[in-house]
Write a structure and sequence with these properties.
The complex is a heterotrimer of chains A (126), B (137) and C (108). With 137 residues, chain B is an alpha+beta fold. Chain B has one domain (3-133). Chain B is 45% helix and 18% strand. Chain B has helices at 3-30, 100-133; strands spanning 47-55, 62-71, 78-80, 92-94. Classes of the chains: A mainly alpha (126), B alpha+beta (137), C mainly alpha (108). Chains A and B meet through helix 1 and helix 3 of A and helix 1, strand 1, strand 2 and helix 2 of B.
């Protein structure tokens, strides 16, 4: 669903970032769990391109965080490194780097929203 | 439950699991020299911990839990200490199957994972704060 | 009768902030006006156009940034200058309104 306004797009991105943060948290918490495969969300532009929003929360692999986040799924990622005997595919350094990216994007997102919101408020003030 | 709160929950479960692991490691280290009390008795047996991930219904995330704490079945190294109360008829004492170097490495791993989980908690908490701050002028 | 605001002539450098002055500069109006003097309504429309342009470019850049395709510093600069011109435009708007009201209250 193509977002129509700046605020719409910002909300979509912050939802996507929050789901990604949860996937990263799950990966870091399960870094020593045998047989665990690392999860991640699909890229943001693919989320934007999708024209239909599915509300099904019954499919395995869906993280259902309420109707607004429906359609934002986390999937186990393909692993092309050396597989440990424990079959755990979490690489801690990558997860920490992704967490840093999430943080930076989130800060930019909230700063943009705050700036445009205050501009709207300026204009509509008496 | 919204995504960021779920992130806090799973990171908290990670903290719990890693601190259990640290507890087991420190127990092993503390008892690395603990031999038995009677002749030919078994010494302290090394403990091992294993994790599993459980899908949590309310938040939809895989929390990590301690699945079991087992005893390491590997053999006890024998040391020649005829004066020891636990020495058998040939003077050998069974010593714990704890390798201090392995335990130390495990401990620094557990610390690293603990710190990473803590970072996740801080970040999730900060992101929630940033969202709420949008409302403040 | 109070004359239309458009008939007032306006010198751009009079007592404006830097951003306010910038709003009224640029595009010299050709025709029977002296250099450096534009009619008030034209100056106002210039200011409005510039504000709207700044806002549009800030919005476009922000949308690109949210999609992940923009340079952070450019976005920040664009948004800040949009905020500045908007603030100046709103201040001028308020001044104009209150000045008009004051003039309308004058006894003849």
């Amino acid at each position: 669903m193509e977002p129509v306004s700046l605020f719409d797009l910002a909300t979509r991105q912050s939802q996507w970032l929050a789901v990604r943060q949860t996937a990263i948290a799950g990966n870091i918490a399960n870094v020593n769990t045998p047989g665990y495969t690392a999860n991640d969300v699909e890229p943001f532009d693919k989320v934007l391109d999708r024209t239909s929003v599915s509300l099904s929360a019954t499919q395995e692999g869906h993280l259902g965080f309420g109707a607004t986040n429906a359609g934002l799924t986390t999937k186990p990622q393909e692993f092309d490194g050396v597989l440990m005997p424990s079959k755990n595919t979490v690489v801690m350094e990558n997860e920490l780097m992704k967490a840093g990216e999430v943080r930076r994007s989130f800060e930019l997102n909230t700063a943009i929203v705050k700036a445009f919101h205050s501009m709207l408020m300026t204009v509509t003030k008496a | 439950m919204d995504a960021l709160t779920a992130a806090l929950k799973v990171a908290a479960s990670g903290l719990g699991a890693q601190s259990e692991r640290l507890r087991v490691v420190s127990e092993n280290l503390a008892n690395a020299q603990s031999t038995g009390n009677t002749a030919g008795a078994d010494p302290y047996q090394r403990k091992t911990i294993s994790f599993t991930s459980e899908l949590d219904r309310t938040s939809g995330v895989s929390l990590v839990e301690v699945s079991s704490i087992e005893r390491d079945p590997s053999a006890f190294p024998m040391e020649f200490q005829p004066g020891n109360v636990a020495a058998d008829e040939r003077g050998y004492v069974k010593t714990p199957n704890v390798n201090v170097l392995i335990e130390m490495a495990d401990m620094s791993e557990a610390n690293r994972s603990y710190e990473a989980n803590l970072q996740v908690i801080k970040q999730a908490r900060d992101l929630i704060s940033m969202t709420i701050d949008l409302m403040r002028n | 009768m109070i004359g239309g605001i458009g008939s007032i002539h306006f010198k751009p450098s009079v007592g404006a902030t830097e951003q306010g002055a910038e709003l009224f500069q640029g595009n010299a109006i050709a025709g029977a006006k002296d250099v450096g003097e534009t009619s008030f309504s034209e100056a106002l429309s210039q200011a409005a156009t510039k504000t709207v342009n700044n806002l549009e470019s800030a919005e476009t850049l922000s949308i690109e940034a949210l999609k992940g395709n923009a340079d952070t510093r450019q976005v920040v600069d664009a948004v800040m200058s949009a905020q500045q011109t908007l603030q100046a435009a709103v201040a001028i708007r308020d001044k104009i309104v209150s000045a008009y009201l004051e003039v309308s209250r004058m006894s003849i």
